[in-house]
């Protein structure tokens, strides 16, 4: 892609997200999301492979369906209440449809099927973009309407995302798919705590983005795509390899790493609200995801692969 196109695409992605995050009207928010989606399609389809084309189509279709659901929800609400303002989403039906469409845009369970497939079909840089930047706009919209969403819907979707993210990642050998399931698992925590403390949800996703970005950048730098590649990376750069292992453990929420903090605060919030069963479920499901993070760390740090 030539420099002019790259500039236009980058600006469109940034503008789309900022437009959605700063708008108070559903139509403007929708336009921002559409701009964002159309700008990222050429980036996903950049590698001239059938997998990339397939990933582009999958991404486009899911995002288009989610956008249509969003329009349906906001129009129904405007029809009932005569109001297009984002925080004024008072209609129960509209709120449920809107929550589902935002979850689809982010790739949270049970509408997560597109995320691992799309990530596997693209490059590591694009995967980084989809798992971090592309989540900001939907999460900010969910944050704005969090007071109107039924807590039961958010909590059940959160727990489901944690289970899917944990179990899905266990059996992967491809790092991009593992990171996709890791993203779904983390979204589960964000969505679940959104019902009780939206500010905590924002902190959780911010810390996740701060930890995921260097993991993807280091993988890109060493061009590692599978677990098998990871076993030999220590011969080229020991520091990078160890950093990836520590960041993985941090993302899993293992104390004393940074990733433990949002999880501890979330559990604290759940127990304060007398939701002990939910807190126990959340801890149990985070053990699944810990399993595959530990496996990656173990592969990197403990197993010495054949000498090059």
Automatic annotation (TrEMBL):
<dbReference type="Pfam" id="PF00361">
    <property type="entry name" value="Proton_antipo_M"/>
</dbReference>
<keyword id="KW-0520">NAD</keyword>
<keyword id="KW-0472">Membrane</keyword>
<dbReference type="GO" id="GO:0008137">
    <property type="term" value="F:NADH dehydrogenase (ubiquinone) activity"/>
</dbReference>
<dbReference type="InterPro" id="IPR001750">
    <property type="entry name" value="ND/Mrp_TM"/>
</dbReference>
<feature type="transmembrane region" description="Helical">
    <location>
        <begin position="191"/>
        <end position="217"/>
    </location>
</feature>
<comment type="function">
    <text>Core subunit of the mitochondrial membrane respiratory chain NADH dehydrogenase (Complex I) which catalyzes electron transfer from NADH through the respiratory chain, using ubiquinone as an electron acceptor. Essential for the catalytic activity and assembly of complex I.</text>
</comment>
<comment type="similarity">
    <text>Belongs to the complex I subunit 2 family.</text>
</comment>
<keyword id="KW-1278">Translocase</keyword>
<keyword id="KW-0813">Transport</keyword>
<keyword id="KW-0999">Mitochondrion inner membrane</keyword>
<keyword id="KW-0812">Transmembrane</keyword>
<keyword id="KW-0679">Respiratory chain</keyword>
<dbReference type="InterPro" id="IPR003917">
    <property type="entry name" value="NADH_UbQ_OxRdtase_chain2"/>
</dbReference>
<protein>
    <recommendedName>
        <fullName>NADH-ubiquinone oxidoreductase chain 2</fullName>
        <ecNumber>7.1.1.2</ecNumber>
    </recommendedName>
</protein>
<dbReference type="GO" id="GO:0006120">
    <property type="term" value="P:mitochondrial electron transport, NADH to ubiquinone"/>
</dbReference>
<feature type="transmembrane region" description="Helical">
    <location>
        <begin position="152"/>
        <end position="170"/>
    </location>
</feature>
<feature type="domain" description="NADH:quinone oxidoreductase/Mrp antiporter transmembrane">
    <location>
        <begin position="23"/>
        <end position="289"/>
    </location>
</feature>
<dbReference type="GO" id="GO:0005743">
    <property type="term" value="C:mitochondrial inner membrane"/>
</dbReference>
<dbReference type="InterPro" id="IPR050175">
    <property type="entry name" value="Complex_I_Subunit_2"/>
</dbReference>
<feature type="transmembrane region" description="Helical">
    <location>
        <begin position="237"/>
        <end position="257"/>
    </location>
</feature>
<keyword id="KW-1133">Transmembrane helix</keyword>
<keyword id="KW-0830">Ubiquinone</keyword>
<keyword id="KW-0496">Mitochondrion</keyword>
<keyword id="KW-0249">Electron transport</keyword>
<feature type="transmembrane region" description="Helical">
    <location>
        <begin position="278"/>
        <end position="301"/>
    </location>
</feature>
């Amino acid at each position: 892609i030539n420099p002019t196109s790259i500039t236009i695409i980058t600006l469109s992605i940034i503008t789309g997200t900022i437009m959605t995050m700063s708008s108070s009207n559903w139509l403007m928010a929708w336009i921002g999301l559409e701009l964002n989606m159309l700008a990222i399609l050429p980036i996903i389809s950049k590698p001239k492979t059938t997998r990339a084309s397939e990933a582009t189509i999958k991404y486009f279709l899911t995002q288009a369906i989610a956008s249509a659901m969003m329009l349906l929800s906001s129009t129904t609400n405007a029809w009932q209440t005569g109001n297009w303002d984002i925080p004024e989403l008072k209609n129960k039906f509209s709120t449920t449809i809107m929550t589902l469409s935002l979850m689809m845009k982010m790739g949270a369970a049970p509408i997560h099927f597109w995320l691992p497939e799309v990530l596997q079909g693209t490059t590591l840089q694009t995967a980084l973009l989809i798992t971090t930047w592309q989540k900001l706009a939907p999460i900010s919209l969910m944050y704005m309407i969090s007071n109107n969403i039924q807590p039961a819907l958010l909590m059940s979707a959160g727990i489901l995302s944690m289970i899917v993210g944990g179990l899905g990642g266990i059996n992967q050998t491809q790092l991009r798919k593992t990171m996709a399931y890791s993203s779904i698992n983390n979204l589960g925590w964000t969505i679940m705590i959104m019902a009780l403390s939206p500010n905590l949800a924002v902190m959780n996703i911010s810390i996740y983005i701060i930890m995921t970005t260097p993991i993807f950048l280091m993988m890109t730098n060493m061009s590692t795509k599978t677990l098998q590649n990871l076993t030999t990376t220590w011969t080229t750069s020991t520091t990078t390899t160890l950093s990836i292992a520590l960041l993985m453990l941090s993302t899993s929420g293992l104390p004393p790493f940074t990733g433990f903090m949002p999880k501890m605060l979330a559990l604290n919030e759940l127990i304060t609200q007398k939701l002990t069963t939910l807190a126990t479920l959340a801890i149990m499901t985070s053990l699944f995801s810990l399993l595959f993070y530990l496996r990656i760390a173990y592969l990197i740090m403990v197993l010495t692969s054949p000498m090059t």
